[in-house]
Every structure is written in structure tokens, then in C-alpha cells.
Design brief:
It is a single chain. The protein has 190 residues and is an alpha/beta fold. Helix content is 57%, strand content 14%. A five-stranded parallel β-sheet has the order 2-3-1-4-5, with helices on both faces. The chain is globular and about 40 Å long. The N and C termini lie close together (10 Å). The structure holds adenosine-5'-diphosphate. The site of adenosine-5'-diphosphate has 18 residues, from helix 2 and helix 3.
Length: 190
């Protein structure tokens, strides 16, 4: 099994790259943001709860997110492995993921991070907001708050995986194809 955490700040290109890499490596792509948005669209109880947080650019509480993630993994028990996109986003999520995979005799092979500067990201997100229909992409204040959440709660996960010898940074600036090549060079080794 190959289990990879695709990491990076909002707008780094995780979703775009995960869609390409899941085909290449025959992995299941789980985007927690996409699962939340699916639930919001279908007005499930989970969706109604998550919406309150997402609309302001805040993180959804850990317990809710962790339970959802476990369900998604369990629904795909035949998978060759997973690309986790948008999860973990807190240290407590990372620890829960390690325990959960360990129970299945599995592990995270590596965290592969897309590195992009914040100014470029805000520009990309505002551009995406024009067509994505995502309410969290249209307001610079909400975008800044997502970076604040990222910087205070999520960025430390680099240290968490680095301590396990499992952090691999990749330059996330360039054409989509070039970035896929850079990521694939890391995936191949994991
Ligand atoms: P982006 O990385 O571009 O901000 P995502 O689609 O990954 O977008 O996530 C959108 C929103 O969904 C986040 O701002 C957050 O509110 C919620 N979310 C997604 N994943 C998590 C998570 N692991 N923990 C808590 N909240 C999450």
C-alpha cells in the first residue's frame, strides 16, 4: 500500500495534482474539502455543521473531520492506497491518522508538500473564486483567515512528518505538467 499526504496551503494545487496522480498510481483520492462540499450540497447533517465553519474559513472541528475521514477510508477497503488531500490539518488529526492506519497494519509513506508563496496563493484563490462558485474563495478576508488557520494549526505538520523522516517538499510554482513530474519523482521513491 502507498499512502501519501499531499500537503500545502490553500490554493497550492493539491486537488489538481491529486486528480492526475491518483490515475498514475492507481490510488484513491480523498479530499476532505470535497467531501464536506458534497455534504453541504446534499444538505446532510454533516454538511450543515461543516458549512458554519467553512464559510468563515475556519477549520471544521477535529472529531467531526476525523470520523468522516475514517468512514471514507473504510468505504474503500480494497484500495491500493490513498492520496490524502486536505487531511491531516492539525496535529491531533495527524496522530489520529497514524493510530487508525496502524490498526490496519498500514502507514503514511510520506508527506509530499507543494511549496508556494502566500502572495501568489491569494492571487490564485481570488482567480479561482471567479469560476469555482466557492464562497470561501471570493472574499479576501476569508482567504486571509484560511491562511491564518493554516499558519497557526497546519504548518507545524511539516515538523511532525519531518521528525519521522517523512517530509518531502516540492516546488509548487510552474506549469501543472512540470509540477506533476516533480511530485511523481517523489511518489516513485515512496
Ligand atoms: P483549500 O485547501 O483550498 O482551502 P479545501 O477544499 O481543502 O480547500 O478545504 C476547504 C475548507 O474545508 C477548509 O477551509 C475547512 O473549513 C474545511 N476542511 C477541509 N479539510 C479539513 C480538515 N482536515 N480539518 C478541518 N477542516 C477542514
Amino acid at each position: 500500500m502507498k499512502n501519501i499526504v499531499l500537503f500545502g496551503p490553500p490554493g497550492a494545487g493539491k486537488g489538481t495534482q491529486a486528480t492526475l496522480l491518483k490515475e498514475k498510481y492507481d490510488l484513491v483520492h480523498i479530499s476532505t474539502g470535497d467531501v464536506f462540499r458534497f455534504n453541504i450540497k446534499n444538505q446532510t447533517a454533516l454538511g450543515l455543521l461543516a458549512k458554519k465553519y467553512m464559510d468563515d474559513g475556519n477549520l471544521v472541528p477535529d472529531e467531526v473531520t476525523i470520523n468522516m475521514l475514517k468512514e471514507e477510508v473504510n468505504r474503500n477497503s480494497a484500495a491500493n492506497g490513498f492520496i490524502f488531500d486536505g487531511f491531516p490539518r492539525t496535529e491531533s488529526q495527524a496522530k489520529a491518522l497514524d493510530v487508525f492506519l496502524n490498526e490496519k497494519d498500514a502507514k503514511i509513506n510520506g508527506m509530499v508538500a507543494l511549496e508556494v508563496s502566500e502572495d501568489l496563493l491569494v492571487e490564485r484563490l481570488l482567480e479561482r473564486g471567479k469560476t469555482s462558485g466557492r464562497t470561501d474563495d471570493t472574499d479576501e478576508g476569508k482567504i486571509r483567515n484560511r491562511f491564518n488557520e493554516y499558519n497557526t494549526k497546519t504548518a507545524i505538520l511539516k515538523d511532525y512528518y519531518q521528525a519521522q523522516g517523512n517530509y518531502f517538499g516540492v516546488n509548487g510554482v510552474g506549469s501543472i505538467e512540470h509540477i506533476t513530474e516533480r511530485l511523481a519523482a517523489v511518489f516513485d521513491k515512496l
